[in-house]
Amino acid sequence: MPERLEAYYIAEDGSKKVPVMLHRAILGSLERFIGILLEHYAGKLPVWLAPTQAVVMNITDKQAAFAEELTLKLKKHGLRVKSDLRNEKIGFKIREHTLEHVPYLLVLGDREVESRSVSVRTQDGSDLGVMPIDKFVDLVRVEIARRGRVELEETTAASKIE
After folding, report:
1. E-strand spans in the chain?
2. pTM here?
């Protein structure tokens, strides 16, 4: 509102003119929206919004090659995955990535390498057990496709029953 700000400029003819004021805050709006999302989800973004959807962790150095192979395979399936091959205890790695709110933690030990599978944990601490890689990919794809709509549909269906 240039009038309320008493903004003016001097035109070529020497008269005072009220300018046209344009206001656009694209980045400010985007930052506020992301802040609202983070607050709504308490930092635990769902898998379809999370910047890192899964972390592949090895227990010992013997599983490092399979961990890298698995990371590449999951990336080829379109998932946002990182690998944690540091020489740290697995409990430390799990705790660290849980605090970072990574939706899925994939743990690789000797049994998983031998069976070409992964041990899957969620960010809320649930252990989904050992599953084949393709089953994990399908699990994540289904969750991404839903984008949280199942909860809304279940709530709506439950309210209709009452």
Report:
1. 9-10, 16-17, 54-58, 81-84, 104-108, 117-122, 127-132
2. 0.72
